[in-house]
Amino acid sequence: MSSDISAIAAQVQHNCHVSDANFGSTFSLCGFLLRLRELYKWESGLSPWEEPEPATLLKWIEDRESFWEPLFDQEFRPITWNGTAFDPFDAEGINRTLRPRGYVYGAGYVTGMKPSFFLGELVSSKTIGELRVDVVGKELARDLFTSPAMRLENQIFARRQPMTAFLWGHLFEMKHSALNALQFAVGQYGVSLEELRRSPRDRASSIVAMAHAELDIWIHHELGEVFQEGFEVDTWREIVGSHAGTPVEIYARAIKDILADTHRHGLLGHIARHRLAASLAFYVAFLPPFSKILFPEILRAFKVFRTSGDWESIEDVRKKAYERTRSLAASLVTLHGQQAAKGSDWVRERILAELIEPLGVLKKSVPGGTGGWEVPSSSQGPAESGTSAGRP
After folding, report:
1. CB atoms within 10 A of CB 389
2. Which helix (H) or strand (E) holds 347?
3. Which of 3, 81, 130, 159 is the Cys-Cys partner for 136 at CB 3.0 to 4.6 Å?
């Protein structure tokens, strides 16, 4: 890596540190600690299946928290190269300079309106319609938030390292509710889940190959986000900006993610059209808790599919879910439309009472930014994958 790229990486990493120092509270405590562990692995050059010694990790976390203290309330620095200072959110301008050198940069706002940045090696580029897709290999700078696939306007970033870590995390954790789907998915690749978990180092090439293949499929979640008809861009930004860190944001993101996946050009539409059985199984295995509540039909349909192989039933479920979720999005947008007259607090309470509480998912939490309520996370699926970059 040349000295000028190293200098840019250092600048990007500084902004990553500032974001982590000031927005770490965006995550739940459990999510925060898991992300710290993944960040430590990345900084230490460990593979996703290599676990650090607990004492070493704990000491690193303590040191990192001390390192963050002087960064509280700091502003992000411009990215300077060859005498030109770029706004750190001007990814398009920075990439005009970086791409010819074989690198790509991403910047935007993600869940909880946390600013997120990365710099990585550009593996390949392609266009799908008017969208540019950059596949990112080794990452040179990143923050606590990583997402296998992200969209910034008409730009999609497909990040291989986060995808591999994400896939292994689910294989290793192997929740009971996802066991059958995971076994089915990896079986389509000719390997067994037990072998992968027992000897990940020996099966590393299989894990990486699956991650890369599925990442190519997950790009279609981002395409679905472009085409979904539930939220206009400005309205979407107002909703997540007004309710960042609350159950309303989690609900809105879950709705939008299902809209994206169930659109005919989205992830499930692509999977059904090309009959990608492994990807369907991974989709079901990775479905976040809140999405399972909003989209239970796919769980029942997959249970039947495992023995029948009936793609028509999957397509039927997709179409019906898209129309139902459009209706949910319309209700959310209608309530949001009263914000100018009645204020965001009133709107938030109405959304909670009319749209979220009937789902039976709210539980009382300690007072805080969520308005005293918590809902199941909407992250860790194609949609955390799919949490779009950009402003916001």
Report:
1. 25
2. helix 344-351
3. 159
Q: What is the DSSP letter of 389?
A: -
Q: How far apart are CA 211 and CA 189, in angstroms?
A: 11
SS3 of 119, please? strand
d(CA 108, CA 94): 13
Q: What is the pLDDT of residues 5-38, one digit of tens each?
A: 999 999 999 999 999 999 998 888 998 999 999 9
Rg of the chain in Å (alpha carbons): 21
| Predicted TM-score (pTM) of this structure | 0.90
With a cut of 70, list the residues of the chain below it in pLDDT: 363-392
Q: How far is CA 297 from CA 283, 320, 346, in A?
A: 13, 9, 32
Peptide bond before 200: cis, by omega within 30 degrees of 0?
no
**Tokens linked to 153:** 């306007």
What CA–CA distance (Å, rounded) separates 255 from 252? 5
Instruction: Tell me the C-alpha distance between 274 and 115, whole Å.
Output: 36
Sorted by sequence, the CB contacts under 8 Å of residue 328 that are 6+ apart come out as: 230, 255, 294, 355
Asked whether the CA dihedral 151, 152, 154, 158 is positive or negative, the reply is: negative
pLDDT single digits (tens) 209-244: 999 999 999 999 999 999 999 999 999 999 999 998
For residue 335, report the phi and psi dihedrals to the nearest 5 degrees: -65, -40
Q: How many residues would you count in the chain? A: 392
What does the alpha-carbon distance between residue 326 and residue 345 come to, in Å, rounded to a whole number?
A: 24
